[in-house]
TrEMBL record:
One Pfam family, short name: DnaJ_C
Subunit details: Homodimer.
Name used for this protein in its record: Chaperone protein DnaJ
Cofactor: how bound: Binds 2 Zn(2+) ions per monomer.
CXXCXGXG motif repeat ranges per the UniProt record: 187-194, 204-211, 226-233, 240-247
Annotated organism of origin: Klenkia marina
GO annotation (BP), single: response to heat
Ligand binding (Zn(2+) 2): C204, C207, C226, C229
Length: 407
C-alpha cells in the first residue's frame, strides 16, 4: 500500500459503495464481489482477477477503521488541495512540483510546509502524512529521530505494559498506586536529535530530507521510507554517546494511576493516555497494567460477590442472634433467625465488589461451631438438652438405614 495508491485509487468505487457506507455495507459489498470475481470461479479471466485484487485491496483498507480514516484524510487533503490524480502525470516527488488542473503550478512542498508551520503542535508536514499511512511508527522508525526540517509530525507514544500487585481490598475497592515504569523516551543528552551535543544532523542527501523515496514498478510509483536515513530525513555523522544516535533512551518514570474498583487477579486493564509520552505534541500511548491480587484471610470472591464464612454456636443457631461481621468497608449487622442450620447463607446486599452496573453482595455462610471440650457443668447441661431433643435430625438417613442401605 503506498500513498500513491491512496491518492489514486477509489476504494469506494472498487467496492461500489457510498463514501459514508457503514462497516456492514462494506463487508456485504466485498463478500458479493469476492464471490463473483474469485479466480477459482473465473479461471483464466485476467479482468476478473484484477478486479478481485482491487476489491480485496479496497476492503483491506476500508474494513480497518484506522486505515480507512487515513485513506479518507489523504484523499481529502489531495483533492481539497487541488491535486487531481492523473491530471498532471502522477504523484510529484516530495518537494517537487506537480501540475494541477489547467497548467497551474502546484507546489506540494508549500501545501505541506504551510500546514506544518502554521499548525504548531499539530505539526503536519509530509512526515506526518506518511508516518500515518505507513502505520504510525512501524515503517516510520525514523520518526523517532529529530528532523531539522518541518518533516516530522507528532507521533503517538508507545503503549506500555506493567504489573501491579494489589491487596484484596485494594482490588475490590480501587486504589491509587505509584507505578515505576521504564519506557523509551527522548534522549536527555541530545534532546532526541541523535547527534552528539554541539553537532547537528544534516539533511539526508538521498531523499533531500523528505524521509521518503519513490520507486517505480510497472505503471505504478511507490513511495517508501528512505533507506539511507530510515525515513527520518536527516543523517547523523557524530552520534550521541548516550543513545548511540537513535535519539531514544529507556527512561524510568513514576506515575500515579488509579486502578478502578473490582479488578480481578490476572486482569489486564487499559489506562488510556498513561503510556509513553507522545513526541512533538503527539498523544501519549496507553498503559496496560496486569494486576495481581493477593488473597484475603477472611473474604472469598465469587464474581462481584464477596463470600465470608462465620461460625456460630449451637445456642446462637437454635435461639437466633444478631451477628456483627466485617465488610471491606466497615462492619454490618446481620440477623440470624432462631432455628438456623449450619451451611445457610445470608445475603447482605450491596456490600460486595463494586462493579460496572451494580455492586455485588456480601454472602455470609454460617457454620455450627462445636466446642472441643466441655466443663462438667456444660456437659451436664448438654446432656439435659439432648434428653429434650427427640426430633431426628437426619430422617432421610434413618429411613435409608431402615430400608437396608442403598439409594
Ligand atoms: Zn542522545
Ligand atoms: Zn533519506
Amino acid at each position: 500500500m503506498s500513498t500513491r495508491d491512496f491518492i489514486e485509487k477509489d476504494y469506494y468505487a472498487a467496492l461500489g459503495v457510498a463514501k459514508d457506507a457503514d462497516a456492514a455495507t462494506i463487508k456485504k459489498a466485498y463478500r458479493a464481489l469476492a464471490r463473483d470475481l474469485h479466480p477459482d470461479k473465473n479461471p483464466g479471466n485476467a479482468q476478473a482477477e484484477a478486479k478481485f485484487k482491487e476489491a480485496s485491496e479496497a476492503y483491506g483498507v476500508l474494513s480497518d477503521v484506522q486505515k480507512r480514516k487515513e485513506y479518507d484524510d489523504a484523499r481529502r487533503l489531495f483533492t481539497g488541495g487541488g491535486f487531481r490524480p492523473g491530471a498532471g502525470g502522477g504523484f510529484p516527488s516530495a518537494g517537487g512540483y506537480g501540475q494541477a488542473g489547467a497548467g497551474q503550478p502546484f507546489d506540494l512542498g508549500d501545501l505541506f510546509g504551510a500546514a506544518g508551520q502554521g499548525a504548531g503542535a499539530r505539526g503536519g508536514g509530509l512526515g506526518d502524512l506518511f508516518g500515518g499511512l505507513f502505520g504510525g511508527g512501524g515503517a516510520g522508525a525514523g520518526s523517532t529521530r529529530s528532523r531539522q526540517q518541518a518533516a516530522s509530525g507528532p507521533a503517538r507514544g508507545q503503549d506500555v505494559e506493567t504489573e501491579a500487585t494489589l491487596a484484596f481490598d485494594e482490588a475490590v475497592l480501587g486504589v491509587t498506586v505509584p507505578l515505576r515504569m521504564q519506557s523509551p523516551g527522548s534522549c536527555p543528552t541530545c534532546h532526541g536529535s541523535g547527534a552528539k551535543p554541539g553537532t547537528a544532523p544534516h539533511t539526508c542527501p538521498v531523499c533531500n530530507g523528505a524521509g521518503v523515496t519513490s520507486r517505480s514498478q510497472g505503471a505504478f510509483a511507490f513511495s517508501e521510507p528512505c533507506r539511507e536515513c530510515r525515513g527520518s530525513g536527516s543523517v547523523v555523522d557524530d552520534p550521541c554517546a548516550t543513545c548511540k544516535g537513535s535519539g531514544i533512551t529507556d527512561q524510568v518514570r513514576t506515575i500515579t494511576v488509579r486502578i478502578p474498583a473490582g479488578v480481578k487477579d490476572g486482569q489486564r486493564i487499559r489506562l488510556a493516555g498513561k503510556g509513553a509520552p507522545g513526541r512533538r505534541g503527539g498523544p501519549a500511548g496507553d498503559l496496560f497494567v496486569v494486576v495481581h491480587v493477593t488473597g484475603s484471610e477472611l473474604f472469598g470472591r465469587s464474581g462481584d460477590d464477596l463470600t465470608l464464612d462465620v461460625p456460630i454456636s449451637f445456642a446462637e443457631a437454635a435461639l437466633g442472634t444478631t451477628l456483627t461481621v466485617p465488610t471491606l468497608d466497615g462492619t454490618v449487622s446481620l440477623k440470624v433467625p432462631p432455628g438456623t442450620s449450619g451451611g445457610r447463607t445470608f445475603r447482605v446486599r450491596g456490600r460486595g465488589v463494586p462493579g460496572k452496573s451494580r455492586t455485588g453482595d456480601l454472602l455470609v455462610t454460617v457454620s455450627i461451631a462445636v466446642p472441643g471440650s466441655l466443663t462438667p457443668e456444660a456437659r451436664a447441661a448438654v446432656e439435659a438438652l439432648a434428653g429434650q431433643l427427640d426430633d431426628d435430625p437426619r430422617p432421610d438417613v434413618t429411613a435409608a438405614v431402615r430400608a437396608g442401605g442403598g439409594a
